[in-house]
Amino acid sequence: MKKIESEPEGIRKMEKGFFKRVYEVVSKIPTGKVITYGQIAGILGMAKGARIVGYAMRIAPDHLPNHRVVNKQGEMARENIFGGEGIQRKRLEKEGVTFLETGCIDMERHVWVISEESF
């Protein structure tokens, strides 16, 4: 797991509970689909927790399909998160994810719709 130099208070405790649940959801995102930070938070019963999910993703294990988590507009993470310009987009395109002219993911086509009951 990646380490962030200045971690907010309580993050270590969250890694053992909430973060683990975030990673469980992320591990199940199907190829060719994406999910938003807010969707993950809602699924896990933390409706206003998109930022916490974002923090969890920032330090997530590399073996997860992290590239499939995007913001609600279908925008991808900042370039430095995946190690270079366009890497997240290339990974998604390789999986068949399509993009609009704006550069955002076609969310109507690719968002993963999942219910809270699944977790």
Uncertain runs with pLDDT below 50, 5 residues or more? none
Class computed from helices, strands and strand pairing:
mainly alpha
Number of strands: 2
Q: What is the element string, with H for helices and E for strands?
A: HHEHHEHH
What is the first-to-last residue Cα distance? 23 Å
Query: Strands across the major sheet, in which order?
Result: 1-2
The rounded Rg comes to 14 Å
Please estimate the helix content. Answer: 25-40%
**Into which percentage range does the β-strand content fall?**
under 5%
Shape: globular
Average pLDDT number: 86
Major sheet size, sense and barrel closure: 2 strands, parallel
The total of helices stands at 6
Please supply descriptive tags for the structure shown above.
single chain; 119 residues; mainly alpha; two-stranded parallel sheet; 6 helices
Describe the structure.
With 119 residues, the chain is mainly alpha-helical. The chain has helices at 11-16, 18-27, 37-43, 50-58, 87-94, 107-110, and strands at 35-36, 69-70. The protein is built from six helices and two strands. It has a two-stranded parallel ribbon.
Produce the secondary structure layout:
Layout: H1 11-16, H2 18-27, E1 35-36, H3 37-43, H4 50-58, E2 69-70, H5 87-94, H6 107-110
Parallel strand pairs: 1-2
Helix pairs in contact: 3-4
Brief synopsis:
The chain is mainly alpha-helical. 37% of the residues lie in helices and 3% in strands.
